[in-house]
Amino acid sequence: MKKSSLIGLVVIAIAIAIIVSTAGDASSYVSFDEAKTLAAAGGDRSIHVVGELKKDAAGNVVGLKPSADKLSVEFILIDDQQKEQKVYLNQPMPSDLLKSDKVVIIGGYHEEQFVADKVLLKCPSKYEEKSL
Fold first, then answer.
1. What percent of the chain has pLDDT over 90?
2. pTM exceeds 0.85
3. Class for domain 28-126, per CATH?
4. Which helix (H) or strand (E) holds 29?
């Protein structure tokens, strides 16, 4: 067998191993009830929950509490099952958090509060066709 063929096989094997290992970390979106069940069952997997920020009748976000030093923020998220949950993010508030239609939080439960490691913002207005 040629040396180049052997190197090619090794590279392919490494690529397959990387794909398989990252596929194990993939997660689907769950509700807060399912997230709490997963957290109670144990494991260090990150949990993905999608929802919307809680808003009043006028459409203003309610329950948003940045810390005094602006290095962390708490907010209320409503999942697809209409369950409200207080979320703590130990990072500065993302700049477009108030503008986003959907919010994906990635993290886990710590006692009765969801602690997010990451926040992904979904703004469909970015993808809408602009009229000329």
1. 36
2. no
3. mainly beta
4. strand 29-30
